[in-house]
Amino acid sequence: MSTNSCLNIVIADKNSLLVKGLTEMFKQDERFDVRATATDGELFLQLVDRLSFDVGIIGWKMPFSDGRQVLTKLRERGSSVRVVVYSGANVAHQVRALGGAGFYSKAKSPEGLIEVISQVGQGNSIFPFEPLEAKNTASLPSLTSRELEILEILTQGYSNRQIARKFEISTNTVKFHLKNLYEKAQVDNRTQAVAFYNQFYKEEL
Length: 205
Prior knowledge:
Layout: E1 7-12, H1 16-27, E2 32-38, H2 41-50, E3 55-58, H3 67-77, E4 82-87, H4 92-97, E5 102-105, H5 112-121, H6 145-154, H7 160-167, H8 171-185, H9 190-200
Parallel strand pairs: 1-2, 1-3, 3-4, 4-5
Helix pairs in contact: 2-3, 6-8, 7-8
């Protein structure tokens, strides 16, 4: 936190009206100082270079550089700015994996964001409770293209025999892929694998 004990923040979101509303909300609390605002990810990154501030509040879907790209670039730069993603998308697990300091859903009362930012400014990481499957984020990149294809088709109710016919492989090969897929996703059966797909892949489509 800055030496004057006031938490310096920068707000970025594609919705200018939302940015204005959040700015007014934080200005009413003497614990915060809104240093600047932006309406896209690239402008936010420029502000990181130009200004000294403690916490950034950003949207996930923004022009030029979205939330994923912003967090990735900040991590590559070794930036000390702590970032909270404020979004209606179910991406808390991705924000955590990319080094974000917190996530707050737009489905909740905006006032709750104040406490989240306060906690993040004190060095805490604030994320909503997530199902056990959320711990699988680190495993996502390790799935092969064939495993991803099989994972997707599982959601359509295909049997091992049907999968084998579709991909022109043996049922033993299907079982081999499923075994590897289950281990990487840390699931025990098809039902859990489908839930895993719906949580981590379907939302990206």
